[in-house]
Design brief:
With 409 residues, the chain is mainly beta. It contains two helices and 18 strands.
Length: 409
Amino acid sequence: MRLFLLAAAIAIATPGMAAAQAPSAPPTPPGAASTGGGSAAILFDSRVRFEGVSQDGLEDANALTARLRLGWRSQAVSGFTFLVEGEAVQALADDFNDTIHGPPTQAVVADPDAAELNRLQVTWTGLPRTEVTLGRQRIVLGNARFVGNVGFRQNEQTFDAARVTTTALEPFTLTYAYIDRVHRVFGDDSPAGEWRSDSHILNVEAPTPVGRLTLYGYQLAFEDAPAQSSTTYGARLVGERVISGPWRATWTAELARQTDNHASNASFDLDYSLVSAGLARGPFTMALARERLDGNGARAFQTPLATLHAFQGWADVFLTTPAAGLTDESIAVGYTWAEPPIGQAIAILGSWRDFSDAQDTVSYGQEFDVSARLTLDERWAFELKSAVFDGDGGFADRSKVWASLEYRF
C-alpha cells in the first residue's frame, strides 16, 4: 500500500506524466454530489498534504499524507448510472497521532491510513426532474453545517443511504435521505469509524423576494453513538442585493431547535442561531457573523454529520460543542485574484474569531485563520493555510499549518 501511494505522489509531482493521462472533461468539484452523466468517465482525485500542529501540553505533530480516490462512472442507460470509487490514505511521514496509532501525548492529525470503498451507488433519473440515488454515496446539504462529506480530511465521510432530490414541485427543491450507516473520517480500523444509523434527512428550498429559504428537519439516531442522536428543525435564509453601483449587500439568518428523540440517552431542548451581514464588490468580500449553539451545562447543540472543519475556526478546537454552549463572533475578508501571473486564480481568505460560552460570559479564546489557494488549471491546485488559536477558560493554545497539492480529473 505504501508503494502504491508513493507512486501516486510521484504522479502528482510530475505534471507532464499526469497531464498526458488526463481526459479533456473538467473535474467534478470536491464535495459536490455526483450525478449521473451521459457518458462513462474515470474518476481520479489525489492530494498530498503536510499538516503541522503545535498544541500546549502535547508533543508537536508533523504529518505528510497522500490520498488517492480512483473510480468509474458508467454511462446512463435507461436512466440508470452506476458509480464505484475506492479511497486510499497513506502516511508518508507519520510523526503524529492519527487517532488510531501514535502516542496520546502527541497532537492529533485525524488522517489515519485507510484503504476502503468510498462510494458504490446507482442513480436513477427516470422521473421528470428527479434523481434517486441508492448505495454508499456523498451527501452535502447546503453549506454542510448539518450534513456534509468532511472533504477537508483525507478520508471522506460517506453514507449508506437512499436519497431523492426533485425540482418537479416548482419552485421547490426537495431532498429526502434515509441514512443506514455513516462511514466517518477515522476509517474502518477505528472503533469510531462507522456508525449504524436510523436517520431521516429532509430539506426543502425555495426562492423568496428576500433570498433563498431552506426549511429542514433532521432526525438522527445512531446505535453506536446514542449521545449524538437528536431531532433538529430549522430554517435558513440567504440573500444579497445591489446597494450602490458595484457594491452588494449579503445576509444570512438561521434558527433551529434541537431536542432529544427515541435514540437519545438524555433529555434536552436547545437552540441554534446564526446572523451574518456582509459587503461584496467584484472579487472582494467581507462579512460579520454571530453564531450561537445553546448548552445547558450537561448537553449542547451538536451537528455530528457536519463538515465541522469549516465552522468555529480551522484549528478544530470546537468539533464537539462544549456543554455550556458556544458563541462564535467573527469577521471574514476574502479576495479572489482572477488573472494572476501564474495559474487561473488565487483566492485569499482571512478571518478573526472570538469564542465564548452560549451566554457570552466566559471567554474560550480567540483565533486567526488565513489561507491562499492557487488554482493552476482545471486539474491542479496548491494551497497554504494556517490557524492560530489563543485559548482561555481551559482551552489550550494551538497553531496549525497546511500545505497541499491536488490533482484531479
